Amino acid sequence: MKRAPGEFLCRFAILALALLLGACSTLPAVNRAVIASEAIPISAQTTLGGMAQRSAPSPEVSGFRLMPLGLFSLDTRVQLARRAEVSLDVQYYHFENDETGRWLLRALRDAAERGVRVRLLIDDLYTGGQDPLWLAFAAHKNVQVRLFNPFCCAREHGQGGRFIASANEWSRVNHRMHNKLFIADGAMAVIGGRNVANEYYLRSRSENFVDVDAFTTGWVVPPLQYLFDRYWNSDPVFPLEAVAKTDLSPAELRARFEDWTGPVNTPPPAELPPNDILGYGPIADDLDLGRLGLIWGEAYVFADHPDKPFDGEVGGELAETSVTYNVFEAIRSAQQEVVASSPYFVPGPTSMEMLHELRSRGVKITVMTNSLASTDEPIVHIGYSHYREELLRMGVDLYELSSSRLRENKRMFLFGKSLGRLHAKLVVIDKKRLFIGSMNLDPRSATINTELGAMIDSPPLARELLRIIDIDRLQSAYRVRLGPNGKGLEWLSNDGEREMVLHEEPDSTPWLRIKSWLLKPFVPVEQL
């Protein structure tokens, strides 16, 4: 039955008042010395550990395989969970209660039932209303779940309700852990940009992300374990049971988990294709053979300190230990070319100064990001649009992903009728160094959220990453240029037979363009 607007407003006011009255609550005290734990080092006695050590050409290098295909990327995580014998350390910003999230959770639960220690660390932003699932998972033996910077109140509500309830703690709850990491037996890991939800693995009917992550082993894995431990035992992290409550017994919780993750509610992913656009098959093929076919090179990994967002100033100076600072230092070393992919590209003063300096030395700069129509964060696109004309005038090549061109792309395993959005966070420097991780080129990654990533020295791997970026840049994006006489913008595409020139934001509706124009003066760029 349709309700009068006044009734909706009244209900909202009552909810807001109730949530605000609960805002005085605080997070519980936790004895961190008692709950501290450490990663279990690699051992040649485990199947994965022995395989990793046999595959490495030397102890000081790391092996990588890029994973542009979401179906392979999800299967890699599941395969590692199924083959783990000692430990699984898992860290994500967004771990959704959907078919993908529950499928992976069941693989983690099955590992725990075999005696594998499972530590799951998730940011609390997207867990609203999902406490029953996490409590049911944590009710199993050998499983521990912790939350980064949890909301203390209104846990059954979504983001809006929980932020209202934490209005007096905005400076705290605005900071989130954006890291993505999956480590099995201290031997093999997955890093990159993908969270755990249908849209990251081509399983959503409405929208899916263009993304890339990497399977890795070798020298970088122990440092990744150290970085995980630093978060797991940090002050902003709380055990799930300290903030989420239930009246159900552990047995009842486990029964519910069995039902939620069983075949009726959690169907398996689609069958894997033979190979991806790089020609690689599923990682299970290598694991079955007992030897990994990877690209090897020197690499180092880094993550923001867990306290970074609370110690610094929003929009302030970059900490020398931050991921953004280290990536920028690598970009500044470029002599010829920088190619970057960032779904959210809001340069800000520090980035613009760096880009100006690179262009003054003749360094070619190419950036691919989302268009207004393809972004899932229109407010961020407004922040980016402030800089487009200046970027083009300094000679930066800008490309924006086109949802329509992506649908028309005839490559297999892509998006069908769903909306495609860019989500890959990648940088290639001079065709020989590359960054892959969770960091966007925006102020939020720089000073508000925490991030994780790897810098890799490997011309062969850089060539593969450029190939991935170029496929999307040339076949599924518009090139942006200045309009006639240097005024306004134009979007160019080429279907192989003719060039098309558009004079409005591609694929966008008039209302979306008008709304962006109206909001533009009010967007706080330093918060994006």
Write the layout of secondary structure elements.
Blueprint: H1 5-21, H2 32-35, H3 47-55, E1 62-67, H4 70-83, E2 87-92, H5 99-113, E3 117-123, H6 131-138, E4 143-148, H7 159-165, H8 170-173, E5 180-184, E6 188-192, E7 207-210, E8 213-218, H9 221-232, E9 237-239, H10 240-243, H11 250-260, H12 283-289, E10 295-303, H13 308-311, H14 323-332, E11 337-341, H15 348-360, E12 364-370, H16 378-385, H17 388-393, E13 397-401, H18 403-408, E14 419-422, E15 426-429, E16 433-437, H19 443-448, E17 452-457, H20 459-475, E18 477-482, E19 489-494, E20 499-502, H21 510-519
Parallel strand pairs: 2-3, 3-4, 7-14, 11-12, 12-13
Antiparallel strand pairs: 1-8, 1-10, 2-5, 4-9, 5-6, 6-8, 10-17, 11-15, 13-18, 15-16, 16-17, 18-19, 19-20
Helix pairs in contact: 1-7, 4-5, 6-11
As a percent range, the share of helical residues equals: 25-40%
- State the secondary-structure class: alpha+beta
Total beta strands: 20
Task: Give the integer mean of the pLDDT values.
Answer: 90
Largest sheet: 18 strands, mixed
Work out the oligomeric state of the chains in this entry. single chain
Descriptive account of the structure:
With 528 residues, the protein is α+β, with helices and mostly antiparallel strands. It has 21 helices and 20 strands. It has an 18-stranded mixed beta sheet, sandwiched between helices. A two-stranded parallel sheet has the order 7-14. Residues 1-24 have low confidence and may be disordered.
